[in-house]
Amino acid sequence: MIYCRVSSKMQVEEGHGLESQETRCREYATRKDYEVVETFYEKAVSGGVFDRPSFNGMLDYVRKSKIEDVVVIIDDISRFARDIEGHWALRRALKETGGTLESPSITFGEDSDSILIENPLASVSQHQRQKNGEQTKNRMRARVMNGYWVFHAPPGFRYEKTKEHGKLLVRDEPMASIIQETLEGFASGRFETQGEVKRFLESQPDFPKDRRTGLVRYEEVCA
Q1: 169 neighbors 153 (Cβ within 8 angstroms)
Q2: In Å, what is the CA distance from 79 to each residue of 7, 33, 41, 92, 192?
Q3: How confident is the model at residue 15, as a pLDDT?
Q4: pLDDT digits 0-9 by tens, 58-108
Q5: Helices 84-96 and 53-65, packing angle to 10 deg
C-alpha cells in the first residue's frame, strides 16, 4: 500500500505533491516487486496531527482485509509526520495492525542502529514544521505593520495578486457595494432594526440567500 500526504488545500488544488509522491512510491514498489493494492491520500492534513482520516482508513483496511506482511510505502519521512511524538505513535499504530513502513528515502528498522538514525530525521522534520510556522507568523506580522490585511478576506472583499504588493485586499463587487450601503444605512438611521437590514439584503439579487428558504438568516445580518 501507498500513503501520501500534503498539508494544505493549496497543495491539493494547485500542486502535484500527492501525484509525485505516489509516482516515487510506485517506482519503489516495482523495484521491490511489491503489488500495490491500495493508495491512501491524506489531503490538507498537517504533519503535526495524529488523528488522520486516511491513515485511520488505511489501518481499518489492513484489519478487515487480513492481508499478511503488509508494507506501507511513503515517499519521505516528512510525508509521514512532522512531529516526533506523532511519528512514533503512527509507527506503533501501524505495527499493531501487522504493517511495516518502507520508503525509497530511508530504511526503517526495529534495531537500535536503525532507530538511532530514524529519531534525528523525525526530529529534523518536526523542526522544519515549527520553523515554517515561525517564519509564516513573522511574515504576517511584518505585513500587518506595513498596513496590509493578512487574515481571511471579509465579506465584500477578496485577495488579488499584484507584482508590487503581493496578495492585496480589494473590493469584490457587487457584494462590496451592497455591504457598504447596508452599513452606512444602519449608521445613518436609514435602517433602525435588524429586521430592516435583513429585508434590505433579501431585496438584493446578488446577496447570497439560504438555498432552502431563499431568505437571509439573522446570523448573517449586521446589527
Answers
A1: yes
A2: 9, 23, 11, 17, 55
A3: 67
A4: 999 988 887 788 999 999 999 998 899 999 999 999 999 989 999 999 999
A5: 20
Reduced to 3 states, what is the DSSP secondary structure of residue 4? strand
Q: What are residue 156's phi and psi, to 5 degrees?
A: 95, 0
pLDDT computed for residue 72 by the predictor: 95
- Report the C-alpha gap between 196 and 91 in whole angstroms: 58
In contact, 81 and 90? CB cutoff 8 Å: yes
**C-alpha cell belonging to residue 221:** 445580518
Q: Cα(183)–Cα(197) distance, rounded to whole angstroms?
A: 9
- For the CA atoms of 181, 187, 192, 194, the dihedral, rounded to the nearest 10 degrees, stands at 70
**What is the C-alpha to C-alpha distance for residues 188 and 186, in angstroms, rounded to an integer?**
6
CA dist., res. 173 & res. 153, Å (int): 13
Side-by-side strand order, sheet with 39-42: 39-42, 2-5, 70-73, 99-102
Q: Which domains does the chain have, with CATH numbers?
A: 2-141 (3.40.50.1390), 152-223 (no CATH)
